[in-house]
Known about the structure:
It contains 11 helices and 13 strands. By secondary structure, it is α+β, with helices and mostly antiparallel strands. α1 crosses α6, α5 (99-112) packs parallel to α8 (231-240) and α8 (231-240) runs antiparallel to α11 (312-320). The longest helix is centred in the middle third of the chain and has 18 residues, at 133-150.
Amino acid sequence: MNISTNPSQNPLFQRIEQSRRSKRKVRDTNITLAHGSGGKAMHDLIEDIFVNTFDNRILSQLEDQATFNLATLMQQGDRLAFTTDSYVVDPLFFPGGDIGKLAVNGTVNDLAVSGAKPLYLSCSVILEEGFAVETLRHVATSMKLAADKAGVEIVTGDTKVVHRGAVDKLFINTAGIGVIRKGVNISAHNIKAGDVVIINGELGNHGAAILIARGELALETDIESDCQPLNDLVETILDVCPDVRAMRDATRGGLATVLNEFAISSNVGIRLDEQSIHVREEVKGVCELLGLDPLYLANEGKLVVVLPRENAEIVLSAMKSHSAGKNACIVGEAVSSPSGIVFLKTVFGAERIVDMLVGEQLPRIC
Length: 366
């Protein structure tokens, strides 16, 4: 593990590590098959690394499920949102984040773009025999920090250990539930001609950061992943404009794939303006070197919002007041025809079709 890209330099990380050091039960330096056997070794691993780190009342009950009071949930909204995702990113640690931070923020953001307030997450890990216990501690602590920042709790989970070589080090699955506030109806089917498309900042930073972190290119840059929770930014948007048509985080497949999904679902066309789309020069350089298109690069902290044009200025102002949206801008609009098509007005004034991603630009990006 590259120490420059792990979370241990964070003072909050160090505080959590210090507070749980006296509670450690696992003395092994590496994961063994016994840690997935269901016996004492597994019990000690779960209590030491996960229960003591995530540290909340629901998880500490050590039941096979988390239970919630429905009346309390209904006070926050009238519908539940439920999502799940798996994380297999390589490398586990990269500039701006790691697999644990990614797993929490990815699930939080999938809930948030439905208009839900994320509340509870699960965490299931699949470990390779021989995986370093100390690295697992780093990942768990990173998840705790990300969960605290997003205002969610990790309340249930599972641990499996497989033979060496049957999985690549560590895979994580997180599921999450949240409550959708009343009066909010966000869907890719809602978009109408005349609506505007807004994103909250630069594209492609996550994809470029992962690519460079793999060490396959002799490049030195300061590009960091944009991995961050978006739920507070979404709350800020909905406070000033409950009538958001559609919203999605642009992860695998990037902005281009999200907008193609929107265009097909709502039977509209979407016109993008290349001059309005922000991409760092270093990311452009990586793309030019490898023949990639930043419109398809993965992001882990970028929000695509479609809303009525009359609400655009108030939403932009609200987004720019938030740290996660300070570089928000209008990048395009929905049009009546050609329907189901995304096209880009280039800096030279020509137009080209932006298809949905075919194949995989970068495998194991999240």
